[in-house]
Automatic annotation (TrEMBL):
InterPro entries: Beta-grasp_dom_sf, Mopterin_synth/thiamin_S_b, Sulfur_Carrier/Prot_Modifier, ThiS/MoaD-like
The protein's name in its UniProt record: MoaD/ThiS family protein
Pfam families membership: ThiS
Transmembrane segments: none
């Protein structure tokens, strides 16, 4: 079973610069464990072991463009040919004065 995983720039040091890698698993948890066998350390950047192996708060994961937090989270079922996208959450900015 082949699943394409799109990797954000900040995590590409774990994939030798690859923008996308392939993995396998019947759930997102299995896929991330599989990826970690070839790209050591990537799983711990996505999954918080201290929080019961749930996705880190500031990491968004999409299965075929659907946020897995609205599916079954880390236990979301996967199928052959699925696409998983990992995106770091972006926040911040500055309040600016409005010109009247």
């Amino acid at each position: 079973m082949a699943i394409e995983v799109r990797i954000p720039t900040i995590l590409r040091t774990y994939t030798d610069g690859a923008k996308a890698v392939e993995g396998s698993g019947t759930t997102l948890a299995e896929l991330l464990a599989d990826l970690d066998t070839r790209h050591s350390g990537i799983r711990e950047r996505i999954v918080d072991a201290d929080k019961g192996n749930q996705l880190r708060r500031f990491v968004n994961v999409y299965l075929n463009d659907e946020d897995v937090r609205f599916l079954d989270g880390i236990e979301t079922k996967l199928s052959d040919g699925d696409n998983v996208t990992i995106l770091p959450a972006v926040a911040g900015g500055a309040l600016t004065k409005r010109l009247a």
